[in-house]
Fold each of these.
Amino acid sequence: MNHWIGAPIDRADGILKVTGEASYAADFNFENLIYGIPILSTCAKGKVVKIDDSDALKIPGVLTILTSQNTPEFFPAKSDFGTASQMGEIRLPLQDETIHYAGQYLGVVLAETLESAEEAEKLVKVLVEEEPPILEMEKNLSQAYSPKAFFGEPLPVIRGNFEKAFSEAEIKLEEIYTTPVEHHNPMEPHASIAVWDGENLTLYESTQWVVGARNVVADALKLPREKVKIISWFVGGGFGCKGFIWPHTLLSSLAAMQMKRPVKVLLSRRHLFTTVGHRPATCQKLTLGASRSGKISALKHHTITHTSFVGEFLEGSGGASQNLYDFPNLQVIYQVVRLNKGTPTFMRAPGESTGLFALESLLDELSYKLKIDPIELRLKNYAERHPETGLPWSSSNLKECLQIGAEKFGWKNRNPDPGSMKQGNLSLGWGMAVSMFPGFRSPGSARVKILPDNTARVESATQDMGTGTYTTMKQIAAEILSLPPEKINSFLGDSSYPAAPISGGSMTSASVGPAVEAAAKKALQHLIDTAIKDKASLFYRCSPDDLQAKNGNLIFKTDPSKAETFGEILLRNNLPFLEGEAFIKPDQPDKKYAFQSHGAQFAEVLVDPYLKTIRLNRMVGIFDVGKILNLKTARSQAIGGMIMGIGMALYEKTVYDLTTGRVVNDNLSDYLIPVMADIPSIDVEFIDKPDPYFNSLGVRGLGEIGITGTAAAIANAVYHATGIRIRDLPITLEKLL
Ligand code: MOS
C-alpha cells in the first residue's frame, strides 16, 4: 500500500520553474501600477533632522514620498496560531526619527515608473545628526545583557555541577570559536505588490508564512484579517529571512491604500543586506573536562552574540551542547550585545549551525589530544536519552548514521596523523562531524477535494519555498485516495486556504503533512458515504468497511472487479466536489518522548602545501529525519543544506565598515557563496525509518539539518590535512599561511 509516499517523483513545479511560467511575487503586474523604492539610512546611529525631498519630487512621474513626517501610525500584531505572527524587527517603520543602523528605512519614493522612483531616491537629501555607532560586540561587552529565556526555556542552563566536574577532570580543554555575520541571500529578492480595492487588500509576496504575513499586515493597518489575502505561489528560497514580516510589506500595503492604486515595492540585492535580517556573529568559548578514556564530564558553552537596538534575537548556539551528547555537568551561558546593525533573524538551523561548528570542532581537538578516533569519541558520549529532559528518544539513529557514513566514506583507511595522507602533491584531509536538529511541529490544517473528472486537489495555506511541498503534499493525498500523483494538484501559498504554520523550524512536512492525510481520509469517507446512500450505485447499502479506493475507483475489497470511478459517483449525485478538511494539533499531553533528528557528515579536502588553497573533494551526509516523503526532493534539501554549510565553512562573511556601519560587500560578487565549481560530489543517504510517535506519517523535517555539522566536518578535514586548527569562520587560505 505504501506506494506514493516516499516515491522519488519529479517536482510538481519543476517544469513551471525551468520554463519561466512560475510567477514569483515581483512578476505580478497590474494596470496603473505604482513603483516604490525605499530610502535607506547611510549612517548607523543618529537622528533625522530634516528630509529634503524637493528635488526628488521634481522628477517626472514621482507621486509622493512617504517619510516619518507623513506616515500614519502602524499597530503591532496580535499573536496567535502556533508561532507568533510578528515583524522581523519589532519597531514599526517610519514612526520616528531615530536611526539605529545603516540601511534603516527612512522613507519610500512612489512613482509611475521604476526608473523615476530610483532616480528620485538618489535626490532625496537626508540631514542627520550623527553619533558614533556601536559596531563591535567584543569591545562592548560591558553593555552585554544575559537573556533570561530562550523559547520559553529559562537561561542560563545549569545541569549538574560544572565547576566541580571540571576541577576533577583528567583532561581539560578551552577554546574560542568565532563565526561572522552571514546573510541568507535567497536567489529571489523580497518583493511586495499590494492591491487595494477599497475594502480588500491582496498582497503578492515572497514569504515563508502567508498566514503570518496576513495577520501582521491586517493588525498593523487595523483591517479585519479576512479582508487581507496573501498570495505567495512560488518562493525563490528563504532560509529564514522570509519567515517574519519586514517593513517593505507594511509600506506597500499602506501606499496602496493611500494612493488607491496597486503598489509594487521591490528590494534589490543591496537592500537584502540590511533590511531583512541576518545570522548574527558569535564568539563561543567552550570549556571541557574529560577522562583519559574520552568521557566528557564537564562542558561550559559560553556564547557572545548580538542583536539590534530595535529587536530581540538570540542565536542559540549553546543548544548544540545542551541537546546532543550526554554531558552530565553543563553550563550554557549567553551574553548579547546591542549593536547598530540591522536586526538579526533565524537563518537555516539558527543556533545549531554555529553551535555545532564550535562543539564538533572541539570534540575533534579532544580526539587528537586523547588519540581516540573521532567517531569512537562521539559514541562514548552518546546520549541514550535526551540529555536535557531525560525523555527517551522517539527514534534516534545517530549510531547508524555514523556507521553507514564511515563505511560509505571509507573512514577505516584514515591515518589519523595530521598531514600524513597525500594525493599527488596535495595534502589530503578527512574530517567528520555530527549533525543535529530538533523535531518541531505546529498546528496545521488542509483541505482535500475529490473532483468529478477523477482528479483531486489539496489546499492549504502553507507554502513551498523551494523545498518540495507542492510535490510531497499531493503524494500524501495520492497515498490515501489511491490516485496517481499526476491526478492531484496542490494549491498552496494563499492565505485564504486552511491555516498552516510558518515554513520555518523544518516543520512544514511534520505539521501540514498529517493534516493533508487526515483531510484526504475524510474526503474519501464522504465519497464512500455518498456511494452507499446512492440507489444507483453498486455499493448501495454496503458496509463502508467492505470498500476501498483503488486507482481512482471505489472497489469491493473482496471483489475488485466491482468498481465505480470517483467521477461516476460524483456526477450521478450532481456533486461538483466532495471534500474533507482537517486541523491537526501536535498532542503530547504528558511529554513522553524527545524528538530530534541526527546525522553524520564526512568531508575530504585537498590543501596545496605551498599556496594553501583548499579544495573540497567529496562529502558524505547520512541523515535520520524519520520517514522520507519523496526521496528526490529530500536529497535535494539535504544537499542544499550541505552546500550552504560549505559556504559557511569556506566563503561566507558579511563585512561592515567600522566607521559608518555600512555593509561593504552587499552584493553577490563580494559576498562569496559556493558556485558549481566549488561543489564536489555529495553523497546523501537517509535512514528512512518512520518516527513512531511524532505524527501519523512518522516524518520529521529536513530543511535545516543539512547545514548542521558541515562547517566542523570541513574544519576538521583541514586540520587533518595541515595540522592547522582554524577556529574562525570562514576558513580562508590566508588563515593557513
Ligand atoms: Mo528556518 S531559519 O526556521 O526558515
Amino acid sequence: MKTQVVIIGGGPSGLLLSQLLDLAGVDSVVLERKSRDYVLSRIRAGVLEQGLTDLLRKAQVSTRMDAEGKIHDGFCLAFGGQTLRIDLKRLTGGKTVMVYGQTELTRDLYEARDALNGTILHEVEDVVLHDLKSASPSVSFLHAGERQRIACDFIAGCDGFHGVSCTSIPAEVRTEYEKTFPFGWLGVLSRTRPVDDELIYARSPEGFALCSMRSDTLSRYYVQCPLSDSAENWSDDRFWNTLSRRIPAHIAARLETGPSIEKSIAPLRSFISEPMRFGQLFLAGDAAHIVPPTGAKGLNLAASDIFYLSTALIDFYQSGSNAGLQTYSQTALSRVWKASRFSWFMTELLHDFSQTDRFGDRMQDAQLDYLVGSEALQTSIAENYAGLPY
Ligand code: APR
Ligand code: PHB
C-alpha cells in the first residue's frame, strides 16, 4: 500500500488532519489502535476556542456544532465566598468560546471522513515507524491478523500520550519536560440541569471544583482528589456533597443532583516533548504535549498543531514549498509553551496545595485578591482562556 501521509491515531488530531488534507486533495491513511466505539465512548473536555471552531468550519464538520454548541461570553471564578466573572467578550474585544463536547466533535469527524470515503483502519496493533530520516519512510502494523506496510512521504504522529510516535524519535535528539501535580480530578457526568449557564472554577479550603456542562440537560462536574484515590471510593452522594461544599452556598442551593452516568479519575500533568519533528515524522496533539485541564487547552492545542501542520503539508503538495514544514516544530511549540504556562497558572491558582506548601497557599490568596482589583490580570486570563492567535 502507498499513500502521501500516514496518520497514526484516530483521535481529534488525526481525524481533523485527514479531513483537511483530503479537502485539499492530499491522500492519507489513518491507523487507530482501538475500535471506533471505544474512541467514541471516551468522555473528554468540551471548551473550544474560536481558532478551533473556525478550523472545523473550514474542514466542513461544523453543522452540528453550530446548531447544538453553546457560545459562552464568560466564565466564573469562585473563591473565599465570592464570585468573579471573567467577561471574555468585553475583555478581549469580542472573543468567546464554544461549549461542545469533544466526544461529539470526534463523532462529527468520523462522519465527515465516512462521507468522503476516508481510509481509517481500526484495531491496528504493533505500529512501527521506519526510515524517518529518508525521503521514503513507511509504517508497518498488524491488522486483521496480517502484517502490512504503507509507504508514504510523511508520517503524522497523532497517537496521544501513550502512542508510539513520540518515542520513535531517538532519545539523543529529544528533550522531555514534565511536571506532575500531587492530585487528580474526579469527573462526573450526569443527566441533570447544569448549576449555571456558565462554567464555574471554584477554589475552596477543601480543594478545587469545576462546574461544566455538555448541554441544557447534561452536566459535567469535577472535584480535586488525591492521586491515590479511586472512583469506586466515591458514591454519588459523596460526590454531590463534596461538590456542594466546594462551591459558594448560593450556587450549591440550586445544584440539581442525580445518578452519575460516568465517573473517573484523571491525574494532572504538564508534559512537552521537543522537537515536534524528526525527519519526515511530525508530532501533533497529545503525542507531543499534555496540559492539566484547568485551562481547557488540551483539545485547543491539538487544533493549533493541526492548523500549522495541515497548512504546511498542503503548501508542500500545492506549491512545492518546504517552508511551513521547516518551521512547524518551532511555530507549534511557541504556542504550546504559552498555553502550558496558562494551564499551569490556572492549576496553581485554584487547587489546594496547603498540605505541602503553606507559602504557596498564601500566594494564592494574594494573587486572587490582586485579581479582583486588577482588570489587567483579568484581561490576561481572558485572552489566554479565549485562545491566543494562531
Ligand atoms: N497506534 C495507533 N493508534 C494509537 C496508538 C498506536 N500505537 N497509540 C494510541 N493510539 C490512538 C489512541 O487510541 C487515540 O484514539 O491515538 C489516538 C490519540 O487520540 P487522543 O489521545 O484523543 O489525542 P489527540 O487526537 O491528540 O487529541 C487531543 O487533547 O488534551 C486532549 O482530551 C484531549 O484527547 C484530546 C486531545
Ligand atoms: C469539561 O467540560 O470537561 C471541562 C471544561 C473546562 C475545563 C476542563 C474540562 O477547564
